[in-house]
Amino acid sequence: MENRKEIVITANKGLFSLHLSDVWAYRDLVMLLVRRDFVANYKQTILGPLWFFLQPLLTTLMFTFLFAGMGRLGTGNIPAVLFYMCGITFWNYFAACIKINSTTFITNQSVFGKVYFPRLVIPISVTLSNLIKLAIQFLLFISIYLYFILFKEASGSPTIYLALLPLNIILLGVLGLGSGILISSLTTKYRDLNNLVDFGLQLLMYATVLFSADAYPARFKWFTVVNPLFPIIETTKLGLLGSGTFDLTAYIISILFTITTLVLGVLVFNKTEQNFMDVV
Amino acid sequence: MNAIEIRDLSKIYRLGAVSTGTISHDLNRWWYSVRGLEDPYAKIAESNARDTKGTSDYVWSLKDVNLDVKQGEILGIIGKNGAGKSTLLKILSRVTGPTKGKVTMHGRVASLLEVGTGFHPELTGRENIFLNGAILGMTKKEIRSKFDEIVSFSGVERYVDTPVKRYSSGMYVRLAFAVAAHLEPEILIVDEVLAVGDAEFQKKCIGKMKDVSDREGRTVLFVSHNLPALTSLCSRAVLMTKGNLVYSGEPKDVVSHYLNEEGNPDAIQTKWAAGANISEDHRCQLNGISFVNKELNVFNLDESIEIEIEYEILNGEDRYNLSLSLFAGDDTYILSSPSISDQWFDKPHTVGVYRTRVTLPANFLNEGDYYITLLLVQNAKHVAVEVGRAIYFKVVDDGKKRGGYYGKWSGVVRLELPWRTVKN
Lengths: 280, 424
Prior knowledge:
Chain A is mostly helical.
């Protein structure tokens, strides 16, 4: 026989038999799923892709009203709208990745129960399709930014740290992916965790986008180092708006944390996918 | 050359509520595995007898299954619900993993446990063909090269750019099966998907499956409750009972074994979809055959067997009559009976549905398996419709009239002849 593929199924596949080459073989599926997410989401809605814009816009206005307006929280010399919108746009990417990926097994059980393909295809496609969403929302941010610069003569201006933006986006996506699939593996059997995730994400959002490092309440300063999202968002703001400080140690910790989460997530996910149908 | 080798394949399922008490069991399991011991719950698992109440929460859905499937073989898998057929297919499809054992498969595998997996209602037929094809393992390039073939096989050309949520369920299934039929795996795993779709399409699908194995040397694994389809399609069949493979051989033999196991409630009637058994001139068709007032297709020796046949005249005013032939499970021709005694025999039939009853008398057939072949005869000379193996049944001996003899009772028929002895 010519080189026919051999498939072996045994009870306990090794922790490291990841079949990542299979994922590559299914790259067309990844792209088709990205397309599906995009097309299917907005069919039969009146505003269609306009929802991409509305959601971060409304959140920003709410933040500006609540925290800058009523709470009188300072945003440095940067207009509150820009400050919050920058943070929220990038935070949303991470949040969408972790939230959607954390229900991978439960959302896709009907497909997973009927046909085999490398399960990692789903979280990868989710991370990519949210990247498109981020790109669109980023364009919205840029246009509002330009408006402020041209007509309001706002003081924000990009800095050299803008060069780290692509890395920051990758870190956000990978961290969302890694922690999402880690949670999804843990919640197939014990669903309680999902409620915690929503609550935790909400808290983490305030801790991440509300302050820049120098304005952080002194008592909670330690949190800017412990929270791996903070240095990424802070560096992004620094690059785009020129507000904030760059903490190299915290940034490197974030990178290491992201890599560890990804590796752990993939290993646990891979271990879970074999038998999750029996417990989900 | 084996395409699939299955060795000691076993699978445990936990019954009842999964969420309660599983943490302690999981921890216990983990502790055993850390020390290199076997799963502690494997020992207390029971065989999967659906109808008896078990004492353990764990059951073997599959237990030490060994099976080799040759390349190019179409293997049918028969068994009652809960016999482990679907679990076996799921493991082979890599949807779930085994508890013990090993499977080796040579070649690309595609499984059809369902048609249209991953179809998105909002997407058009075209978009879904690509999505579904990719989920089943095709690349975009492969799908593009077969796209026209897929669309014409499905017969939904007109709707290919309509969202599939606007499709009728028949169209949906046609499109979905068309995608699957154009996969080119070395091993195809099919579970009962032929239960859907109309008769014409089913025929098309069976033809396609046969084609795939005859011409291209592919291996097909096929689970179905449709016994006639199974016997005509498969080159070999295996019978599963309670998680074990109990019998393997010619499909015909395996089917009769299966029916022997116990009556099959699915088999008390056979209904054919419109157009399935239609005459060449489209003037008449057979609609179905059933046993009257029965829940199982099993009869006692002293029970008469009442059969109802439904046929339909679609056109014309030809003369018709029915005829049935009775065969034993080993194909012995027992009798043929045209409906000569019927008032409608060879009378002109106008358009409409006709129901005919005929009774095989009690105390006539011996214990064993039987099947009936039906003919619808036009103008007393031309066989308009013929259905072989239209319905199966089984005659059992409850031991009432054996006169103390408990061995095998030979012969095809078992009439009670009037004996009389006088003493001189």
